[in-house]
Design brief:
By secondary structure, this protein is α+β, with helices and mostly antiparallel strands. It is built from nine helices and 14 strands. The radius of gyration is 22 Å and the shape is elongated.
Length: about 350
């Protein structure tokens, strides 16, 4: 544990009291200058610290530091191994390499920033520092590759449930795995894996999740500012990022450990924003023409429409078209009609 982390730990454990630099220096076996540097570094992370001469330092705001200790404090499963990084190119890429070299199931990798975050359909996933939390979990499921979508779906259910537990806010899921809060996308999910050449099953899978905790400094980029939003807007929640990570993993493992029973399906339907709604159907031919909202804006009159009447056991979207025909969608996207 670094000097900065140790200083923060002492301040968190003694929130009602001022802790002197001299005490910290002696306790940690470092110089007063090292303590001063640690305090300034903590302040740069956005944590407000009151400093009074001859008394010391005290935290005066809720702390949201993403650390191994903070995450493990809220995890239910003691077998989950946690690694935390200030920055990675991609948590999925990091874990895929680990998986390829035999790492066992249950490694959770968390980054405060991704420089090459990945989204669906080879899209980049914006992962700025101080805007969100980005994490991936290594799995070795006993399922066929065509069932990998279940992992993504469980992740969506887990994120929505975690948001409710941590913030009391009601997020929803837009088929297949978009997590929306106040009609804004607050989370990205990407599952990747490797297929065994011996039996055709999944050798390993990596489920990656990025949650927009708060709006980053300067706002969202032009390419996503119309569709992206944060989970919190000024609310003061202690350890909010670490709680969101831990609670998401807690909920995920609850359903993952009983994956063959498909218990997650009921929760997925309950949290769906499209069931019973009229939708535009956006197939693969339109997929490269822009974001969902852009496609609807430009091509809405030519898109097929229908009413979603069910989500089947394989996550197909059952849509009733205008002529009464039922069609089960297995790929593509939909957009809820607002007119």
């Amino acid at each position: 544990m670094s000097t900065k982390e140790q200083v923060l730990k002492y301040l968190q454990e003694n929130k009602e009291d001022y802790i002197s630099g001299g005490f910290l220096s002696e306790k940690l076996g470092v110089s007063r200058n090292a303590i001063w540097k640690a305090i300034n570094s903590i302040k740069k992370d956005g944590i407000m610290i009151d400093a009074i001469s001859n008394k010391g330092y005290r935290i005066v705001s809720s702390v949201d530091v993403i650390s191994k200790d903070a995450i493990k404090k809220y995890l239910n499963d003691g077998n989950i191994r946690v690694e935390v990084f200030d920055s990675l190119d991609s948590t999925n890429t990091y874990l895929k390499e680990k998986g390829a070299h035999g790492e066992s199931e249950g490694l959770l990798v968390v980054a405060k920033e991704q420089t090459k975050g990945k989204g669906r359909m080879n899209r980049a996933f914006s992962s700025p520092k101080n805007g969100g939390v980005y994490f991936s979990l290594l799995l070795r499921p006993s399922i066929n590759p065509n069932e990998a979508l279940f992992i993504t779906t469980i992740a969506a259910v887990a994120v929505v449930t975690a948001i409710k537990k941590v913030t009391s806010k009601e997020a929803k899921i837009k088929w297949v795995n978009d997590v929306l809060l106040d009609d804004k996308k607050v989370c990205g999910i990407l599952t990747e894996g490797s297929i065994s050449m011996e039996n055709g099953s999944l050798d390993y899978a990596v489920v990656g999740i990025g949650i927009n905790v708060r709006e980053p400094e300067g706002g969202y980029g032009d390419e996503i500012k119309k569709i992206a939003g944060p989970v919190i807007n000024g609310e003061d929640i202690e350890d909010v990022s670490s709680k969101l990570v831990a609670e998401t993993v807690n909920e995920f493992m609850k359903y993952y450990n009983k994956l063959p029973e498909k218990d997650f399906l009921k929760a997925y339907k309950d949290k769906s924003i499209v069931l019973g709604k009229e939708v535009y159907i956006i197939d693969s031919n339109h997929g490269s023409l822009g974001t969902t909202s852009e496609i609807v804006s430009k091509y809405g009159d030519s898109l097929e429409t229908g009413k979603v009447i069910d989500i089947d056991d394989n996550l197909g979207l059952v849509v009733k078209k205008k002529d009464g025909e039922l069609e089960t969608l297995r790929s593509g996207e939909v957009s809820v009609r607002t007119k």
